[in-house]
Amino acid sequence: MRLLTAHVAMVRETAHDLSPTGLHGARDALIELVRTVLRHEFDDTEPRLAPALARAAMDLADEHLTDPDLSPATLARRLNVSVRTLHRAFTTAEESVTAYVRRRRLERARQELLAPFARPTVSELAAHWHFADSSHFIRAFKKQYGHTPTRLTALSDERKRPPQAPPGP
């Protein structure tokens, strides 16, 4: 059912950009998903289902980003597919399952860093978003955003300060 729901949502978001051939493919995938739901089985060799499976996994991952046990194996188990099938589905996406989860966790951590009040420390963020330690979090953050978390907050604070008046004569 998650796959079916994710596919319908994906088609709804992209239908206006699809060509007639794309719409036909989306319809065929929808029919296959409905058949799969009705038969209670999943054909993991069906290439038209891969985007819907990847979208369902992304949606599920987004719901559980704070879960310390979030992993490809957990997602696959919840979606009733093998880990291999899940990884194959993500070949249609631009990143692996693990990279997707890491990127989304970093995005959420960045949002918390840019909050005007009650900013968590780097160590708190690393622990909350399940990075091995602060160093690992800082390296991943810098790779994703080009700045360390501390530098990002400093830049954000500088932008929020009112401009200083030039010194008088």
From TrEMBL:
This protein's UniProt keywords: Transcription, Transcription regulation
Residue stretches making up the HTH araC/xylS-type domain: 55-155
InterPro entries (UniProt xref): Homeodomain-like_sf, HTH_AraC, PchR_regulatory_protein
PANTHER family: REGULATORY PROTEIN PCHR
Molecular function per GO: DNA-binding transcription factor activity; sequence-specific DNA binding
UniProt-annotated stretches for the region Disordered: 149-169
Name of the protein this chain belongs to: Helix-turn-helix domain-containing protein
Domain of life: Bacteria
SUPFAM superfamilies per UniProt: Homeodomain-like
Keyword Kinase in annotation: no
